[in-house]
Amino acid sequence: QVQLVESGGGLVQAGGSLRLSCAGSGRTFSTYTMGWFRQAPGKELEFVAAISWSGGSTTYADSMKDRFTISRDNAKTTAYLQMNSLKPEDTAVYYCAAKKYSTPQAMGVPGYNDIDYWGKGTLVTVSS
């Protein structure tokens, strides 16, 4: 079993940056595709980015690929989401997700919900 704990959220002004972290437990962390999703108030869950188990392959939602960067450090069993040039519309709860035997591209398919493990989320608020 893998437990995921997000951190790094908070309040930031538009144009600012934040780095979210997702700390995973368990020795099998390196075998999971990791992803980030977000849910804004009153809206559906939205895919943000995903990264393969090795870190060699990534995929992003089109609206975020020029501003966000996903990465991972398997030695630290942690995945990251670097968010730059933040906008008020980026305000949401950001969730970390783990899926074994998947690809980042599959995780990015609209409506994908075959996630093995979810974190509890971290709130990001971007003020204008």
**Main sheet makeup:** 7 strands, mixed
Amount of helix: under 10%
By helix and strand content, what is the structural category?
mainly beta
Can you give the mean pLDDT?
A: 95
Strand content: over 45%
Care to describe what's here?
Helices cover 3% and strands 48% of the residues. It is globular, with a radius of gyration of 13 Å. Strands 2, 4, 5, 6, 9, 10 and 11 form a seven-stranded mixed sheet that branches. A four-stranded antiparallel sheet has the order 1-3-8-7, with no helix packed on it. The chain contains one helix and eleven strands; from the N terminus they run E-E-E-E-E-E-E-E-E-H-E-E. It starts with a strand and ends with a strand.
What is the element layout, followed by pairings?
Layout: E1 4-7, E2 10-13, E3 18-24, E4 32-39, E5 46-51, E6 58-60, E7 68-73, E8 78-83, E9 92-100, H1 104-107, E10 117-118, E11 122-127
Parallel strand pairs: 2-11
Antiparallel strand pairs: 1-3, 3-8, 4-5, 4-9, 5-6, 7-8, 9-10, 9-11
Task: Give a quick precis of the structure.
By secondary structure, the chain is mainly beta.
For this entry, give a set of tags.
128 residues; mainly beta; 7-stranded mixed beta sheet; 4-stranded antiparallel beta sheet; 1 helix; globular
